[in-house]
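The passage that follows is intended for readers who have already worked through the single-chain material. We present the inputs for a multi-component assembly, then the predicted structure in tokenized form, and finally a short commentary. You are encouraged to pause after the input and sketch how you expect the pieces to fit together before reading on.
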Amino acid sequence: MENIFEAFTIFLSVQNFVVVLAGVIIGTIIGAIPGMTTPMGVALALPFTFSMEPVTGILLLLGVYKGGLYGGSITAILLKAPGTPAASCTVIDGFPMAQKGEARRALDMALYASCFADFVSNLSLILFTGFLASFALRFGPAEFFTLIFFSLSIIAGVSGDKLSKGIISACFGLILATVGLDIIYGTERFIFGEPELMAGLNFIPVLIGLFALPEIIDHYTRKNTQQVSVGALGSMGATLRDFKRCFKSIVRGSLIGVVLGAIPGIGGAPSAFLSYSEARRTSKNPDAFGKGEIEGVAAAEAGNNGVAGSTMIPLLALGVPGDVITAVILGAFMIHGLKPGPVMFIENLPIIYGIFMGIMLSSAYLFIVGKFSIRAISRIADLPNSLLYPVVLVLCVFGCYAVNNNVFDILVMVSMGILGFAMLRLKIPAAPFLIAYILGPLLEDSFRQALLLSDGSYAIFFKNGICWTFWVLTLLSTIFMVRSRMKENKNNGKTK
Amino acid sequence: MTAKTSHELYTGIGVVLLSILGYFVAIPAGIVVPESVDIRALSPDFWPVIVVFVLGLSGVGLTVQGLAETGLIGGRKRSKDGDQIDRRSEDTSDEYTFGKAALRVVVFMVILFAIYFAIPFIGMVAATIPAIMFLSWYAGEKRWKIIIPLAVVLPLILYFFFVYVANVPIPNGIFESIG
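Having made your guess, compare it with the prediction:
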């Protein structure tokens, strides 16, 4: 009770209310701009949180994340250009609705489904995180090693079309994470006489370099052919009757999102597609799907946004990110001197409750922003890339410098941008790099701490049921992901 | 051999070479291993060696995939139709030719490094204003009445935010006395 009271005092400030709103608006705008991604938006917002209180800073990023998830559906419906990968499912019925002059109705339904699913997902976060964290208090270095090893298997889920490329990307991230002084012996690793590298590479320049710069560089290799124009929204919005008709699919999609979101590595896109296919399978009128069926929009958006809160469960309870955005948010926690995981539930419980309150507020803001500013935000998709990308570049430069007041970080960002661009062109995904870069030190430290405790005996990693559970989960998730990838490739082959 | 599959093959070979370079050159030259290491797994180079090993294996895997897709092993060469579909799936219609695209990337890099080297001398605001102007124009924007105000106002807003709100001292270079 005392903790809840303290959480209220942390949370109830004008700054928090303004910042969450700003985050949702920024995220919705970023999500609505084709070519801008939510991780990019969170990365660009991160340096602006340095001067804020930890809760305020984290809430800004969560607002951007949630806004970005919803914003992706705006251009998916209006332009057939999904702002996020997960919004590609919304295109299937959203765009045909827009073509029929029902864009406003589709956008309204996307908003209602998103907000409902987001709310359900937030509730699951609040209800389940504490239980998981109290269980994780029993973990020692060996258990953490197996847990993080399991979390690394999420790389398979973000590897794009080739698993080997995902692993290659992850190896680059793991190697880069070793730069600096060795934590046990204090000797140099890949410093090559450069004193700036002694503390390792800062997370933000690496993040911005990998996620923002390659897109900008890539833009300059393409002709300026951007001629998108947002059509009329239409006057008829979604009615209560529409919502009631879609309610079953929205609830089902929300629950699918909650479950899949809590499993590291799955993310919003598979959840949206599973929710959509279930809605179609159980519909009385499955043939209407794909031709502008409002229930299709509702199911896709519910599945997509249902993951928003639950992806935070493994992050807050165990300290391991479920996807690339929560990996960025994990970095933000660390920058603010907080370490998510079971210990945080003992030492900083009011902060966690404060974050829960802010997350619930963000759901309400999402509804308000979506309802009243949809017309203005949808116009932002018209913003020419020729102005957008130079602006983003300058944000990157200021943001990277502000991390440590160090020009060297700009050089790191530029170098990572070049590497990121090469990876983009070689179709090596960047997400495994970042996840491995963040998890790498945690993995290595827990590995070495465990071996120090056991005097070098590897048996410590198989000492109890928790370790075995994570080994089995790693094996199962790898088999599952490889099998589903093979199935996907086979289906693609048949389509061709 | 299609462009895509040869691309995979060369990427795989490149990664294998990189891992060999890492194992034989970068790790011995870049990691100081103390003599007092009793347990091999606690050595500072233990983890990087494992990662480089996995990198090499993944490179081999990608090379084998590339070879299989080109039909050099396993007899899985793609049909002519399949190749056509493959090529179509990579939309390159809005791209410049390779030479022009490469030149534009180089120009962009020059601007990035110019910003980096200019900051200590002329400060961050003065370095980014001409960069925004040039990059907007280079990206095809010709409306100077939008470019110029944007290029001036944005860095100034960011400067005031970081200096007066976030308390981050943004470098001013030779304009230090004005800042």
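Commentary: The CA atoms of residues 21 and 412 of chain A lie 32 Å apart. Strands of chain A lie at 180-181, 188-189. How closely did your sketch match?
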